[in-house]
């Protein structure tokens, strides 16, 4: 009986489920231009500088560099200016591909 009830509840929940509605896509911009890191960009959102705002970290497949776009806007309304490459020991962090 429990399994039958559970299956009925799952079926009922699924029958009333609606497809999600999405807004049209937009490009993220930095300094007024679309952010373009080349092929296979790998973005990650993280508060890099500890200011409670979401920053954008993005790897570049072709060069292996890692870009940092600091959020100059608000946490829920980010705005990005130009990027800088992440460094370790004064040298750019480069992650080889392939």
Automatic annotation (TrEMBL):
Q: Which UniProt keywords apply?
A: Signal
In its keyword annotation, does this UniProt entry include Signal? yes
The protein in question is named VCBS repeat-containing protein
Signal sequence segment: 1-19
From what superkingdom does this record's organism come?
A: Bacteria
Q: According to the entry, what is the taxonomic lineage of the organism? A: Bacteria, Bacteria division WOR-3
């Amino acid at each position: 009986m429990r399994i039958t009830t559970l299956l009925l509840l799952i079926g009922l929940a699924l029958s009333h489920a609606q497809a999600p509605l999405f807004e049209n896509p937009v490009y993220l911009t930095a300094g007024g231009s679309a952010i373009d890191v080349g092929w296979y960009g790998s973005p990650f959102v993280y508060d890099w500088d500890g200011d409670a705002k979401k920053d954008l970290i993005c790897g570049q497949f072709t060069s292996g560099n890692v870009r940092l776009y600091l959020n100059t806007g608000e946490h829920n309304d980010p705005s990005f200016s130009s990027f800088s490459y992440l460094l370790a020991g004064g040298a750019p962090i480069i992650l080889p591909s392939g």
